[in-house]
Automatic annotation (TrEMBL), chains A, B, C:
Residues 199-218 are annotated as: Disordered. It comes from the Bacteria. The chain crosses the membrane at residues 6-23, 30-50, 62-79, 91-110, 116-137, 149-167, 173-191. Keywords: Cell membrane, Membrane, Transmembrane, Transmembrane helix. It holds the Pfam family Gly_transporter. InterPro entries: Gly_transporter. It is a multi-pass membrane protein. Belongs to the UPF0126 family. Its main location: membrane. This is TRIC cation channel family protein. The keyword Lipid metabolism does not apply.
Amino acid sequence: MLLTALNYLGIAAFAASGALIGVRKRLDVFGIWTLAVLTGLGGGVARDILLGVTPPVTFKGWENLTVATVSAAIVFFFHPQVGAVRRTVDVLDAFGVALFAATGALTAIHAGTSPIAAALIGVTTGLGGGILRDVLVNEVPLLIQSGEMVAIPALAGAALTVAVDGLGGGPDWALILGTAVAFGFRILVMWRGWTAPRAPDGGCSAHRRRRGRDDAAG
Amino acid sequence: MLLTALNYLGIAAFAASGALIGVRKRLDVFGIWTLAVLTGLGGGVARDILLGVTPPVTFKGWENLTVATVSAAIVFFFHPQVGAVRRTVDVLDAFGVALFAATGALTAIHAGTSPIAAALIGVTTGLGGGILRDVLVNEVPLLIQSGEMVAIPALAGAALTVAVDGLGGGPDWALILGTAVAFGFRILVMWRGWTAPRAPDGGCSAHRRRRGRDDAAG
Amino acid sequence: MLLTALNYLGIAAFAASGALIGVRKRLDVFGIWTLAVLTGLGGGVARDILLGVTPPVTFKGWENLTVATVSAAIVFFFHPQVGAVRRTVDVLDAFGVALFAATGALTAIHAGTSPIAAALIGVTTGLGGGILRDVLVNEVPLLIQSGEMVAIPALAGAALTVAVDGLGGGPDWALILGTAVAFGFRILVMWRGWTAPRAPDGGCSAHRRRRGRDDAAG
């Protein structure tokens, strides 16, 4: 069943992103494993809590934990040798977000929520694991970093999943199209290096820079 | 209905505080929006999860998301030009905490919880969004910072809301008095610059300072 | 009843660890109290949310809050005078994790979950409060730090609790053995200073070091 398969794939992608950051942060093997498992399973747990599914599906068997563990082990032994770690994490994160946004939205529809709730729960499923990962390693989440635009592609993909399923396209096409749009949109953003505007300055830069220092000191 | 109106106001206040920190951290427009939305909606989601309301109310419509978005947009275009950013965030945070402590407590009573549970759920609703905001931007939360005393006014406001409603004062007066006391109490703390005691030293300061360095190094 | 008693003991241990970190970070008395309460009660709230117990047990009375408050007060006035703060936190954390892993697992069994779910919910109960504590004070959690191996002893203790109870050993022996193994295992790790392997290097160290800088800069 496609929903289950894509869900495993999402867990593997997120777990790999967590493991890779663990390698980069020089954690030991247990730290890497813990980070990978929390990153891989976090989104699904958030989804089930929002849907009132208790205990969450992840807790009912060893499958999800095993997928995350295998993914972490592969990264541990074969992590990229060249300096592309940061971009690799970003691509894995983009893939995980896209898969979880689509599968989360479809799972929510199956659970009987409204289309709006399904789309928003899909987004939350997509973002949950990555937030947990970045907060645990004490970094500002990718989610709000400049030039990443993480939430918008997730919202587009989740909304498309809900729309395709609701318009009679069937769950398989909904998942495939939702994932493809969410992933493609975000990769496009990263590849083109689109930068989004910051808040208007409203004063001279020197003034702002001074204010920044005041804030940091305050 | 007053409960709904004050709830929107709380979302707007918290979303503005998140957006303002996003501006200060030089996030781009999407990062600012994401941070504002998570800050504005976080407390209400925590409340509904604690009450077993699934999916949380926020996920069932666009209203809350729209309020947070509009609030973020206003901050984005008209954020304060002068160096008062940090205090503005604190006042918005104080207002959001007060509103959510009162509305969270009243929502919990309406859901049939005990008075004690209602007061504590009110506090959690008030604190949830701000914790999420500060953790996401990688700062020690206002909640535990010295001289802020965030939790005590929230507890006072939530408890008063529960008491007024329980003693027959009606929900409107409960909300108004609870919010006013929680907000006024915290503003008073900030305005007077009341400082609370730290742990007794128990040794000479030089010794402590050396220990601090050891800990930081350890 | 042993389950209740050990649960209070777990809350006290975690609250003390939170309060001690608060003292070390020079928070004021309200910050210390808030951090202690969130650390002490966080794991139990996570457990109840995963089990669908709403509102969580902690919110239904003052008992847990009082235990955490008393524990924080003791630390506040009698915190260790010598430089052993970091190790004391680690031992309290180990004790709290062990107690909550065992009591969390048993509570889950009583709530009717499968043995697998009970073990995993026990682990989550044990880890929840400490994650919250470390994230709030803006530190990389003990959970993933090198040489701590936090999750493995918790998993061993929770699984043993489930096994002993399932094999007819009764809840009391399940709790005692589960706690003892989880605590003894982790203390052994800390005492022997066992270090776990990091990811294989795969290149020259100079190259890796350069890459680390690139990542930090990127």
